[in-house]
Design a protein that fits this description.
Blueprint (H helix, E strand, L loop, with lengths): L6 H19 L5 H34 L2 H8 L10 H9 L3 H12 L7 H16 L8 H21 L15
Length: 175
C-alpha cells in the first residue's frame, strides 16, 4: 500500500499552508493586497476541504470496495457538494453512522477556545459571498482562523478515510 495521504492531498495542504504563511507575513501597510489575499485564502480554504473530502473518499473506496460500489460512490464526488458542517456530516454518514457522530463531535469540540462547526460555517458563508461578488468583510484574522479550521477538518478526513486504519476505531481529535 502506498503512503497516506496521497501526494495530491499533501500538495493541497502545503499550498494552503504557504498561502496562509504569505498572508500572515504580509506587510500591514499593503491593505488592498491584504484584503484581496484574505478573500483568496477563504476561497482556497473552503476548496481545500472540498478537494480533500473527494480525494480521500475516492481513494478509500478504490482500496476497500468492489467495483460496483466504487462506481456508485464516485458518482457523488467532484459534483460541487458543499462543505457546510451538516453537508460534511451527511457525506461521512453515507459511509458509516458512527463516523458522522464522530465528525459532529470533532466539529463541536471547543476546547481550543473556538468552535470548528461555527468557523467552517462562517468560512463557507464567506466563500459563497465572495463567489457572488461580495465578501469585503473577510479580514486577515478571519481568513487565517478559517484556514486553520480547514486544515484541521481536512486532517480529520485524511485520518478517517485512511484505508490502512481500523474502520471502527475513532479518529484522534488531535489535528
Amino acid at each position: 500500500m502506498t503512503n497516506w495521504p496521497p501526494p495530491t492531498v499533501r500538495s493541497r495542504k502545503q499550498d494552503l499552508h504557504d498561502l496562509t504563511e504569505t498572508l500572515q507575513n504580509l506587510d500591514p501597510k499593503a491593505s488592498e493586497l491584504q484584503v484581496a489575499l484574505a478573500r483568496y485564502t477563504a476561497v482556497r480554504a473552503a476548496g481545500y476541504v472540498e478537494a480533500v473530502r473527494d480525494d480521500v473518499a475516492d481513494l478509500f473506496v478504490d482500496r476497500v470496495a468492489l467495483d460496483v460500489i466504487k462506481s456508485r460512490v464516485r458518482t457523488g464526488l467532484r459534483v460541487g457538494l458543499g462543505v457546510r458542517p451538516q453537508q460534511l456530516i451527511d457525506f461521512v454518514q453515507s459511509f458509516h453512522r458512527d463516523w458522522a457522530i464522530e465528525l459532529a463531535n470533532f466539529l463541536d469540540d471547543d476546547t481550543s477556545l473556538r468552535n470548528r462547526r461555527s468557523d467552517l460555517g462562517a468560512l463557507v458563508h464567506a466563500r459563497n459571498k465572495i463567489a457572488h461578488g461580495d465578501g469585503d468583510s473577510v479580514g486577515r484574522n478571519d481568513a487565517l482562523r478559517w484556514a486553520t479550521t480547514a486544515e484541521e477538518v481536512g486532517g480529520w478526513l485524511i485520518r478517517r478515510f485512511d484505508p490502512s486504519r481500523d474502520f471502527y476505531s475513532p479518529v484522534s481529535a488531535t489535528p
